[in-house]
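Predict structure. Input: D-alanyl-D-alanine carboxypeptidase, 278 residues.
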Amino acid sequence: MKHIIEGKFICLLFAAVVLTACNSEPEAEPEESETSEVTEEPDVDGENSEEEEDSAETTPENEEAESHKYEIVTEEEVFDESSIEALVNRQYLLSEDYVPDDLVRVEVPLIFPDHPEINQLRAPAAEALKEMFDSAEEEDIYLHARSGYRSYGTQEIQYGSFVETHGEEAASRFSAPPGASEHQTGLAMDVTSESVGYELLESFGETAEGGWVKNNAHVYGFIIRYHEGKEDITGYMYEPWHLRYVGKELAHDIKESGLTYEEYILESGIDIEENRAE
Ligand SMILES: [Zn+2]
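Output follows.
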């Protein structure tokens, strides 16, 4: 919110370049080393487009707000990094030593099956992901998991690589600094499909698979975390592939509300603005 509007366009441009550049590479070499794979990860997860934001209270979706529960989330849960409902973004960072204690390997089709880290999620999220993928398959929708858990250290390497290549100012616009990525929670998974070459592209949102995910993810406890046109609120570009597990009841209510998680938390009466770290 402290940044000028031009910043958004510059960083969107960067993100487009980076996505295009990165997405043409990793798929061809599933055997690549952990470090290089991590560096090449196209899930930039880090579009920074802070600018003057619209108030959450002015969104049209709020017209139906009365029917939503909102009280599902509590301040205690939102600010507890080990909670399924933890808020993680550029203002609310995970601590360097936070590692979920219930990580398990996901049992769904994988893009990088040999990677030791990124095929993990916290147990409840992994179970829900399998349930979702199985249900999709029954409707001839074939989803693949590309990138789940990333440690603080892994994110640090990835961010450092972008800084080295593009400079810190630019990197900070399209990549999440360590602690600011939801992937460290073990509750986020990037999903993709053959129709987009198993990459992470905005066009996934226009595919049959992306449409299915958009319409059904909440049934299994996932939300699409970064909405189109809400970059100024979430701090991240539109990512139709990035799913965040929050549990079925909450995911359903968030989906019904049409809000981003930040907006939903605000509507729940939790003042996250006041707690901003910057
Ligand atoms: Zn992601």
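Residues 43, 45, 183, 188, 190, 242 surround zinc ion (CB under 6 Å).
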